[in-house]
Amino acid sequence: MISPVNKGASRVVTGLTLAAVNTLLVLLLGGLPIYFLLGINMVSGIIYLVIILGTPIISFITWLKKMEAKCPYCNEIIQFSDSATGVTCKACKQRTVIKGSRLLKVT
Fold first, then answer.
1. Which of 88, 40, 64, 57 shows the shortest CA–CA distance to 98?
2. Could you state, in order of their start, the residue ranges of all structural domains in the chain?
């Protein structure tokens, strides 16, 4: 059966923590150089604001969409996005198809 990676309040806390860390990394590695290269003006302020607001939202949504299931070939846990139609197991390198709430073997 396919289930979310984390469930309940711990899932939200982990997602928010991940969003905060990603925001700090993006700001330090991407946002501040853009801010100082363009100078302190309206354009750089808007770009910086988009980075500050967009990064945690995208990171949090991506975290909530992660799912997991057991590989039908080797029973190893596989993590994937909820929008995926198929996934390759990292342990046995076999391809599986996601159908409903199950992973099916590809023949």
1. 88
2. 3-64, 67-105
106, 75, 104: which is closest to 92 by C-alpha? Answer: 75
CA distance 103 to 73: 10
38-60 pLDDT, tens digit each = 666 666 667 777 777 777 777 77
Q: How far is CA 63 from CA 5, 6, 80, in A?
A: 9, 9, 10
Please check the confidence at residue 68 and state whether its pLDDT lies above 80.
yes
- Tokens standing for residue 54: 């967009």
Q: Please list the residues that pair with 78 across neighbouring strands.
A: 69
What predicted TM-score, i.e. pTM, was given to this entire model? 0.47
